[in-house]
Amino acid sequence: MTEIIIIRHGETEWNQTGRFQGQSDVPLSAQGRAQAAALGRNLVAEHVDAVYASDLSRAMETAAPLADRYGLDVIPDPLLRELHFGRWEGRFFNEINEETPDMMKMFYRNPEEVNIPESEPFADFQRRVSRRVREIAAAHRHERVVLVSHGAAIRILFADILSMPVRAIWHVSQLNTAVNRIRFEDDGFAIVTLMNDTSHLRAEAQP
Questions:
Q1: Domain coordinates of the chain in residue numbers?
Q2: How far apart are CA 167 and CA 36, in angstroms?
Q3: Do residues 74 and 60 lie in contact, with contact meaning Cβ atoms separated by under 8 Å?
Q4: pLDDT at res. 203
Q5: Are strands 144-149 and 50-53 parallel, antiparallel or unpaired?
Q6: Does the annotation count 95 as an active-site position?
Q7: Superfamily covering domain 2-205
Q8: What per-residue confidence (pLDDT) applies to 205?
Q9: Residue 202: its pLDDT value, please?
Q10: Any catalytic annotation for residue 9?
Q11: Could you give phi then psi for residue 5, rounded to 5 degrees?
């Protein structure tokens, strides 16, 4: 079997202040860098064969301590990027909600139907992410691979693997540096074995 460990990036200032990041290149905050360092120290994995990351800086920065631990280079991959939010990128959630509350409600309850100007359609987004993850799994058969990606990207992947409707993705929590594990059998059948684990952060607080 092949194991894919897919991890959300660490915290950014835009996470703290409630802004749509999408494909805007926002770096980690000081807290995010501390989370990435804790992830690098405490991820439970005897070995890792490859480390990929979205080419956006918050993902690459999160992946770096892990890659250093295993003596690997981070492979940047633009297909692991977050959803492109179009004209919403860089704007505050509450600002969009005040201007267009019905659109914001639809975004969370039926995202496939929302028409955000200049954004990436959710169907295209799901094809992009799920296809690339399956390609990476096929290229690394019988290996363990770390992917560092983004909150919505991981949720949309789970929707594909678990045959969930896209409207259900916001019911899945993905905290900053959350660790998720997926087992791919030789025939491509995928099984989610862990979701939204942040025990690597709690380990730092133990005496």
A1: 2-205
A2: 30
A3: yes
A4: 78
A5: parallel
A6: no
A7: Phosphoglycerate mutase-like (3.40.50.1240)
A8: 64
A9: 87
A10: yes
A11: -105, 110
Tokens of 109: 């309850």
Position 201, amino acid: L
Q: How far apart are CA 35 and CA 89, in angstroms?
A: 24
pLDDT of residue 206: 56
pTM for the whole structure: 0.96
Any idea which residue has 């070995």 for tokens?
A: 47
Catalytic residue among 3, 82, 89, 150: 82
Half-sphere exposure of 188 (CA within 13 A, CB side): 8
Successive 10-residue mean pLDDT values, the chain, 207 residues: 97 97 98 97 96 98 98 98 97 95 94 93 97 98 98 98 96 98 96 97 71
The conformation of residue 19, written as its DSSP 8-state character, comes to B
Assigned token pair, 149: 């990606």
Sequence-ordered alpha helix ranges (H) in 116-165 = 122-139, 151-161
Q: 31 CB contacts (<8 Å, ≥6 apart)?
A: 10, 11, 16
In the structure encoding, which two tokens stand for residue 12, read together? Answer: 């950014």
Considering only CA atoms, which of 115, 131, 34 is closest in space to residue 79?
Answer: 131
Helix segments in 43-117, DSSP class H: 57-69, 93-99, 101-109
* Catalytic residue chosen out of the listed positions 3, 9, 61, 200: 9
For residue 196, give the H/E element and its range.
Answer: strand 190-197
